[in-house]
Specification:
Elements lengths: L4 E4 L3 H6 L4 E5 L7 H14 L6 H27 L8 H13 L16 E8 L2 E9 L4 H15 L4 H5 L11 H12 L7 E6 L2 E9 L5
Antiparallel strand pairs: 1-2, 2-3, 3-4, 4-6, 5-6
């Protein structure tokens, strides 16, 4: 596995079988690492007879991890530009959007910002397969409102095409991906309240719960 990823425990598959939580850590901010995460997820799903949800969870992981990476990049951008993400949010977001348009955010590296990492936790609790995507940095009130808007947007649409036809996008993170996850959940008869976020301890946690399939 790449140095930018770590997994705990090392014998994760056997540990997961006996009820332990599996943690994957992202130590850099590259979307390419997702290709190494998917096979691990496939193995965990097979253990719990949940392979029918493989494609859906790949989408959910991609969108939630990308959002975590973008949120991290945003915070590093604010720091590098001497801006406070709460007090200078409006000014900073405009600069950040311009940086996105100029593809400047692609050059943001970890460097001295080692505390900015993302983690994905997998476990089973109360007859649910639970996935939590955690990243350093508690969302601001403005960010939380935008995320809630995108979740509500998913609730009122029934097809992905409906979302694509809606021109409302949030370029700085959140956005279409969250709405898409909600639409897919509805199509799979997964309660939409099974996707939620919490803000605590300076971190943001996105939690997704998928019901276990009872064996006949």
């Amino acid at each position: 596995m790449k140095n930018s990823l770590y997994i705990y425990p090392e014998n994760y598959l056997e540990s997961f079988r006996i009820g332990c939580v599996v943690k994957i850590g992202l130590q850099k901010f590259t979307f390419e690492d997702l290709a190494d995460i998917y096979p691990i997820v496939n193995q965990l799903l097979e253990v719990k007879n949940l392979s029918k949800y493989t494609s859906f969870l790949h989408v959910a992981i991609r969108e939630l991890v990308q959002n975590a990476i973008k949120a991290t990049q945003k915070r590093i951008f604010f720091l590098q530009n001497g801006l406070n993400i709460i007090n200078d949010y409006a000014e900073g977001i405009e600069k950040y959007k311009k940086a996105i348009d100029n593809e400047e955010t692609k050059t943001i590296e970890l460097n001295d910002y080692s505390k900015f990492t993302a983690e994905i936790l997998f476990g089973v609790r109360n007859n649910f397969f639970v996935m939590v995507v955690k990243n350093f940095g508690q969302m601001t009130n403005q960010e939380a409102k935008s995320v809630e808007h995108m979740i509500e947007r998913g609730k009122i649409n029934s097809q992905i095409s409906d979302l694509l036809g809606d021109e409302v996008r949030q370029r700085e993170g959140g956005g279409l991906g969250l709405s898409m996850i909600i639409v897919l959940m509805k199509n799979l008869n997964i309660p939409i309240n099974n996707l939620f976020f919490t803000l605590k301890g300076g971190h943001t946690h996105f939690c997704l719960k998928v019901p276990l399939i009872e064996e006949n």
